[in-house]
Amino acid sequence: MTITIGLPSKGRMKEDSSAVLARAGFSVIAVGNDRSYRGRVEGRDDIEIAFLSASEISREIANGTVDFGVTGEDLVREGLAEADARVEFCARLGFGHADVVVAVPEIWLDVDTMADLGDVAADFRARHGRRLTIATKYWRLTQQFFSGNHGIQLYRIVESLGATEGAPASGSADIIVDITSTGSTLVANHLKILSDGVILKSEACLVRARKPEHEGNPVVAEIINAVRGVL
Ligand SMILES: Nc1ncnc2c1ncn2[C@@H]1O[C@H](COP(=O)(O)OP(=O)(O)OP(=O)(O)O)[C@@H](O)[C@H]1O
Ligand SMILES: O=P(O)(O)OC[C@H]1O[C@H](OP(=O)(O)OP(=O)(O)O)[C@H](O)[C@@H]1O
Questions:
Q1: The whole model's pTM is what?
Q2: Phi and psi based region of residue 190 (left: phi greater than 0; alpha: psi -120 to 50; beta: remaining)
Q3: How confident is the model at residue 35 (pLDDT cuts 50, 70, 90)?
Q4: CA triplet 103, 138, 124: central angle to 5 degrees?
Q5: Which residue windows are transmembrane per the record (predicted)?
Q6: 16, 179, 187, 202: residue to mutate for ligand 1 pocket, most atoms within 8 A of CB
Q7: Which residue from 3, 28, 6 is spatially nearest to 217, judged by alpha carbons?
């Protein structure tokens, strides 16, 4: 059985992903030209590389088309219900750090915690005639955190696929859930993170689709151990 590893074909995780595999002894070579979406590992006929975008990798792991992938934990947990039952986070790779956070306008002076935000959400309809709105592309993580962890039910998610931090100023949503790394985009948009508003501390991970045929497969174990060994 050939083991397929999904690696980012572009974007911020591309170089670091190939580098970590190379350090682990798996030198990735593109097959064909630079634009090819297939690759292989030098000297190995039992491993294939599929170059995909970071978010496609989490989808392909979920449906089992690839055996392993390197992608952000946020994308896996957002893309997949019951993620831990369906995939194994084999290693945290030390790059691609980003926090998924709840941020509100700085001028909401008496809102510093999720409990404060729960109070605002409860009163929102009476005060404004509508529910509190949250701009995000992280639907699943937002619902789990608000409804599951904090018992906040009165809100509406407004899908945002870009420039999420601009939503409160433009009036398209009241607050946001998005990723931040340096924090400068939040500051530039006069938003603050709630003190207990970090939903997930994400980074690039080596992720494995849990498949029965992986049991006892020496190549699967070899890949996991080799990557762990260079971290
Ligand atoms: N400053 C940042 N902004 C956005 N994503 C970041 C940042 N820092 C780390 N990441 C992580 O990078 C991953 C997204 O990578 P990238 O934006 O390169 O994907 P992508 O190739 O654009 O995917 P797609 O095109 O499918 O959206 C996520 O897991 C995210 O958490
Ligand atoms: O905390 P910071 O360091 O300011 O980074 C956070 C910002 O970076 C990302 O956007 P980016 O412009 O990289 O583009 P993307 O949305 O296409 O990933 C992300 O969506 C945030 O807006």
A1: 0.96
A2: left
A3: low
A4: 50
A5: none
A6: 179
A7: 3
